[in-house]
Amino acid sequence: MRIFLIGAGQVGFAVVEALHTDHEITVLDTEPSRLAALAERYDVATVEGNGTSRRDLAAAGVQNADLVIACTSRDEVNLVAGMFARREAKNATTVIRTSNVEYVELWRVGQLDVDFVVCSELETAHAISRIIGVPAARQTDIFAEGQVQIVEFDVEEGASEDVLGTPLREAKIPRDSKVAAVIRGDEMLLPGGNEVIRAGDRIVVIGSPEAAQAWSALLAPEGAAVRDVVIYGAGRVGSAIARVLLDQGIRVRMIEASPEKARAVAEALPDARVYNATGVDPDFLERERIGQTNAAIFAMRDDAKNLYAASLAEVHGVKFTIGIAHETVSTEAFEHAGIDVSVNPRTVTAEEIIRFAHDPRTKQVALLEGNRYEVIDVVLRDTSEYIGKAFREMPIRGALIGAVVRNGSAIFPHGDDVLQLGDRVIVFTQAADAPRVVNAL
Amino acid sequence: MRPKRRLAVDLKATANLIGALVKYLGLAVVFPIGVALLYDDPVWPFVATGAITSGFGLTLERATAGAASRVGVREGFLVVTVIWLLAAAFASLPYLFAGGNQLSHPVDAYFEGMSGFTTTGATILTDFDELSRSLAMWRQFTQWLGGMGIIILAIAVLPRLRVGGRQLLESELPGPEIAQLSERIRNTARRLWFLYIGLTAAETLALASLGWFGIDERMNVYEALAHAFTTLPSGGFSTQANSIEAFSAAAQWIIVVFMLLAGANFALMYRGIIRRQPRVFVRDEEFRLYLLVVGVAATALVVQLWSYGTAQGEAALRAGIFQTVSIVTTTGYATADFAAWSTLSLLTIFALMFAGASAGSTSGGIKIVRHLLVGKVLRRELEQTVSPELVMPIRLNGAAVDERTLRGIAAFILLYIGFWAVGAAAIAIESAIGGVDVGTLDALAISASAVGNVGPALGITGPMGSFEPLGDVSKLTMVVLMWVGRLEIIPVVVLLTRHYWRL
């Protein structure tokens, strides 16, 4: 597939990283230094130019593209580039990134002339809402219209004996779920029946949403459902998160240092309680019982502030912290400092965008562990050698099928189940093996 | 020596606009002239009134011709305040010419004129039969004209002057329709006048049909029109010494309904009735609270009347509801001499004088929406005492209310209480010196009734009484209170500041 990418920022990098091996990519950006950095690392064509200039787009060859992705950090540039690309490349799919929920709404009602709109803020909010829905999870993704959930858990001491220290064959794992992978240190295992889950492992579970909840209860018995969260920062990310969580009936309190922003968010979200405070005043944290909240989300613009505020919140007793990491390096720092989950809006956005680059059989892709693993929702080809085979006969070849979608509904297969023509499978694999796995299916 | 500051108000342009408006005001005498011709009353008092008023307006306009026609917000304050003073004078001219013993004294005539144009309803009259039919109708008619003026004031003028939270009227009804409605003020005024005239016609018909069907012998077309004229502006003047008690129970119930309507926001009624969107009534917070206040107060009064044995059965129900609605909407009609009720009932009536009905209605007083918002501000204040960092926009019908508007409301209520207290003191002191039979509660009620444009007060100035025994200082105090109250206080007080006049 020929991909034309406008914007070589963080999202652009993430998209290139995920797609460069299988696709022919051209990147357009106004900044030569960013293009140079990209060209140094990946085998992509780079063109210096302005995405809002139709001439620059044409000169860079946008008309030859199958997929045009406008993912600069500026909405206006992406909008204009997306619209020009549609004129220049009539058959290409156009995807634009935006940070404004309003554009998403416009696009949904057909008022925006592009094929897809991906909103970083909204994707981030949904990612966080998925994490909060499964309290013990590090990351979760939804597949097959919500019927299948991929959840990554950290297994700790104190997890239920039902799954800890027992061979998987005998373990009482929740119905309709499967352990897709065990990550132990730097090693990833596709577990067989004899594998034993140990404390300190990180596991990937594929299952129904109910099973995901059950796993959460097994692994973190005291982790009750989240009813009340505190969000630090009422910028666009914070507000989007608040809106999504309020819609789910979760009580939301927000802390915002700027009086104008605090007022604006309080006006926009009548159900949220908004404080105009820095969130690092111990008296305030104590008085408002911030420590008793189920979860705190740090969505301020500055990663360092998020890190500091999160540490302070943990000191005050907050059990579950989620940090928004705007810089790629921050993710590690957050993790090291004990923030339970970190979400990078640009990674989340890139993940959404990458979906459009897969071949038509691929419905959806989720990236785990900083792009090292992928979960792919793919339709079996008609000539696939796996059709008609029972699961117990299948050899393990670096991938694991966690669920099958047949006629629109999800099946969680057992050894005797047989794959049929037209089935969609949800498969877990290492990112490096992903193209090979998809080809084989 | 400090240099003299320059005058900031364009007096010439102000006078020019006042002249232009007063010129048309004089034309209003056409209606009483017709009534006078019909009943063979002398026509000259009205002809003279019209000639003097229009002549004065024309002269003023001519004398200031060529003035820059830019009348801004600064001039706006002066125009509205002076217009109401002049309109009251205009209304008082026929009383001076033909008022007989009762109203020919200038203070009394002006009192009656101001009470008419501010739709208060307080009266000097004691002998209602002495008045000619045309002059009695003139009294009613001045209130009806005042009501039209109030609609313009409420919809167009006061929101622009950002007076005491009046700008709420604009934000109160979100949605494209109302935005359109307020797009052209002239259009808005025309629509609401249409509603006002339509409701007046409906009430006239409803009341007159009681006479036609023989249900109420005394309710002829003249009385029906006369009372419709003073119901919709929430005025309260009556042609009868005993107010609405003179009419049948059916007439009283009909008037209750129209008083309630007069106390509702006209813009809301326009949407709800003319545009057939009855749900706007349910959604409007002020309207709901308005009905709740009326409901609770009426229940309290009915229980009191029943248990004290003042009235029983339907009569108690009717008396309690009628008086409550009349006071809350600041109409001031009565079907019973509530001045003679038990102390508890007196205090209930007195408290209700501070309620007022909806903003954007013809009623006076503090008004429900201000009570509502002050209540919300108080609640926020208490929550912020515990958590000073809390950010809580005050909402009305879902939309956040500007903090400036809230400050305006607080200022309005403080000034309102101030004027009420000072007015009550003036009336109490003069009455004590002059030996007028006005007690402390009576003086407090008179002042509250005047500044709230209610009309009747307690004691000798109750609904069946008259303000005639009061001294001139008290009457003039009431004139000022009625005027200040009608203009929502702040425009008048603004004129008292040095900043207003000088740059």
Please give a structural write-up.
The complex is a heterodimer of chains A (about 450) and B (about 500). Chain A has about 450 residues and is α/β, with parallel strands linked by helices. Chain A is built from 14 helices and 22 strands. Chain A has helices at about 10-20, 30-40, 55-60, 75-90, 100-110, 120-135, 210-220, 235-245, 260-270, 280-285, 305-315, 330-335, 345-355, 435-440, and strands at about 1-5, 25-30, 45-50, 65-70, 95-100, 115-120, 135-145, 150-155, 175-185, 185-190, 200-205, 230, 250-255, 275, 295-300, 320-325, 340-345, 360-370, 375-380, 400-405, 410, 425-430. A six-stranded parallel beta sheet of chain A has the order 3-2-1-4-5-6, with helices on both faces. In chain A, strands 14-13-12-15-16-17 form a six-stranded parallel beta sheet, with helices on both faces. Chain A has a five-stranded antiparallel beta sheet with strand order 7-8-11-9-10. With about 500 residues, chain B is mainly alpha-helical. Chain B has a domain at about 400-500. Chain B contains 23 helices and three strands. Chain B has a two-stranded antiparallel ribbon with strand order 2-3. In chain B, helix 4 (about 75-100) packs antiparallel against helix 7 (about 135-160), helix 6 packs parallel to helix 21 and helix 12 (about 250-260) packs parallel to helix 16 (about 315-330). Chain B starts with 10 loop residues before the first helix and ends with a helix. Residues about 170-180 of chain B have low confidence and may be disordered. The interface of A and B includes residues 270, 274, 276, 277 and 284 of A. Strand 14 of chain A pairs antiparallel with strand 1 of chain B.
